[in-house]
């Protein structure tokens, strides 16, 4: 079991990994080994995700989610397959943790106070006077 939060754990059997050839640095090595990792996690059918987290995870996943509800993460930052596997799992855990955090409460619209309006207008009047004094002096 992979511990995500204190109330969410994911069974390792729910993760499906496949290995593909990676692009990028690595020289000849990159042409011969399957070091990139494609991690697949079935978001819609996972029994370990609460419904509220599942909904937020679907929104966060965006284009990484297939039509079947499978989240696909590709990790090819590192040259070694093992480091890419760890990277893909960490990214999945981070994404689920972000989805597990409850959304902030909606902002309540407020109006400026009478005093703050008056201070703003006083400041504008002072600034206006300063700018008027910069003009050319009248002819005597």
Automatic annotation (TrEMBL):
Concerning PANTHER family, the annotation shows: PEPTIDYL-TRNA HYDROLASE ARFB
Q: Per its UniProt entry, what is the enzyme's top EC class, as one word?
A: hydrolase
Q: Which SUPFAM superfamilies match?
A: Release factor
Q: Which GO BP annotation is one of this protein's?
A: rescue of stalled ribosome
The entry sums up its family as follows: Belongs to the prokaryotic/mitochondrial release factor family.
Region ranges (Disordered):
97-140
Q: Which ranges are annotated Basic and acidic residues under compositional bias?
A: 119-140
Q: What Enzyme Commission number(s) does the record list for this chain?
A: 3.1.1.29
Q: One Pfam family for this entry, by name? A: RF-1
Q: Which UniProt keywords apply?
A: Hydrolase
Could you tell me what this protein is called? Aminoacyl-tRNA hydrolase
Q: Name one GO molecular function term.
A: translation release factor activity
Which species is this UniProt entry from? Azospirillum cavernae
Q: Where is the composition biased (Basic residues)?
A: 108-118
Ranges where the Prokaryotic-type class I peptide chain release factors domain occurs: 21-37
């Amino acid at each position: 079991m992979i511990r995500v939060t204190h109330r969410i754990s994911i069974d390792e059997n729910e993760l499906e990994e496949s290995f593909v050839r990676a692009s990028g640095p690595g020289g000849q090595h990159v042409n011969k080994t399957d070091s990139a990792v494609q991690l697949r996690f079935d978001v819609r059918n996972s029994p370990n995700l609460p419904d509220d987290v599942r909904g937020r995870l679907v929104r966060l996943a965006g284009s990484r989610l297939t039509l079947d509800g499978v989240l696909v993460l590709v990790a090819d930052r590192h040259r070694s397959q093992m480091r890419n596997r760890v990277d893909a799992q960490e990214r999945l855990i981070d994404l689920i943790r972000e989805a597990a955090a409850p959304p902030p409460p909606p902002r309540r619209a407020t109006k400026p106070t009478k005093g703050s309006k008056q201070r703003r207008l006083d400041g504008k009047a002072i600034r206006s006077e300063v700018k008027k004094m910069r003009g050319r002096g009248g002819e005597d």
